[in-house]
Amino acid sequence: MACPFFVPTNISEDIAWFHPSRLPLGAGWNGRCGAPGHEGFIPASEEIKENCNLGYAITCPRLPEKRICDAVRFSVVRDSGSHLSLWIVFESAHRPTGHGTLEYQISARQWTSPHPNERIQKMAECYVHSYLSRRHTENSKSHQPCT
Fold first, then answer.
1. Closest Cα to residue 24, out of 89, 112, 82, 115?
2. N or C: which terminus of the chain has fewer CB atoms within 10 Å of its end residue's CB?
3. By three-state DSSP, how is residue 27 classified?
């Protein structure tokens, strides 16, 4: 569950992550803050690791007091090979407060139903990137001949 104000930019290669594929965006990401009044602020590595990538960033001084959610979660609910369907869940106080679906055409590299919020859409794009990278790696490994 990533912070709803996190704007991921690139996969983090410089932060040690335990099980990065289990992170909410499918990998550890660097990025910037999108909280009102702090747009563009680049958090320190520890904040990126503990708050931005994981959500529920109650210790973050930039987190708005009034917000629609504390964290955002994505999951692939259908992968037809050429099309992905994702669920998106918004949480506050560790309970769902909203949800939706997003659709992505893999071959066209195009969203057929993007999210209207730019930050949430950017997180979805990063999640799909991580998912497809893992899927490609797993498929390559499964087709390797045994030695």
1. 89
2. C
3. coil
Q: How far is CA 95 from the centre of its chain?
A: 18
pLDDT in tens, 9-50: 999 887 777 777 788 888 899 999 999 999 999 999 999 998
| Lookup: tokens for 13 | 């290669």
Q: Could you give the 3-state DSSP secondary structure of residue 20?
A: helix
* Entry pTM: 0.86
Q: What DSSP element (H or E) covers 71?
A: strand 71-79
The set of residues, in sequence order, having a beta carbon less than 8 Å from that of 71 and lying 6+ positions away, is 1, 2, 3, 4, 24, 54, 55, 56, 90, 91
